Amino acid sequence: MKKTAIITTILIILSIFSANAQYNLGVGLRLNYGYGVSIKYNMNRSKSFEGIVYSRWRGINFTGLYEIHKPAFQAQNWRWYYGVGGHLGYWRDGGRYGNPWFENNNSNTVIGADGILGLEYTFKKIPLNMSVDWKPAFNIVGYTGLWLDDVAITARLAIK
């Protein structure tokens, strides 16, 4: 009973900050092959910047993306987005839990370019933004190559 009251109070307080489908800042969790954090800042209705920090293969990756948003399904709460950016990452040596591509490589650091294509929905009644996206990446430094396997679901607290 006490937990339910606390959760309800928190949701009411958070809903004060976000009462419609548009938000200025979104902070949340990104789930793909690894776990991560996403921070998305909407500069206006059609442009945003997203920063992603996530772990994979006992390492860490930092990504920055510039995104363009367009209405989807002729509905105010749905938006398509696409964009470009870059990343910097570091992974431990290969092996059982490490990045298999670095098993015989002296450099575990990568720098590269990223793209993103996604769809997001922002709830009207609660401060929640959900998205699904595909983020291909090309490593220029370190293990060079094209990575096409980054599909993720992200849930963000939408702050007005």
Quaternary state of this entry equals single chain
Report the CATH topology name.
Porin
- In angstroms, what is the radius of gyration? 18 Å
Helix content: 10-25%
In what range is the share of β-strand residues?
Answer: over 45%
Largest sheet: 8 strands, antiparallel, barrel
* Overall pLDDT score: 82
Q: What is the level 1 CATH name?
A: Mainly Beta
Number of strands: 10
Question: How would you describe what is shown here?
Answer:
It contains 1 helix and 10 strands. It is mainly beta and 160 residues long. The chain has a single domain, classed as Beta Barrel (Porin), CATH 2.40.160. It is globular, with a radius of gyration of 18 Å. It starts with a helix and ends with a strand.
Short description:
10% of the residues lie in helices and 59% in strands.
Write the layout of secondary structure elements.
Elements: H1 2-17, E1 25-31, E2 35-42, E3 47-56, E4 59-72, E5 75-91, E6 109-122, E7 128-134, E8 137-141, E9 145-147, E10 151-159
Antiparallel strand pairs: 1-2, 1-10, 2-3, 3-4, 4-5, 5-6, 6-7, 6-8, 7-10, 8-9
Descriptive tags:
mainly beta; Porin; eight-stranded antiparallel beta barrel; 1 helix
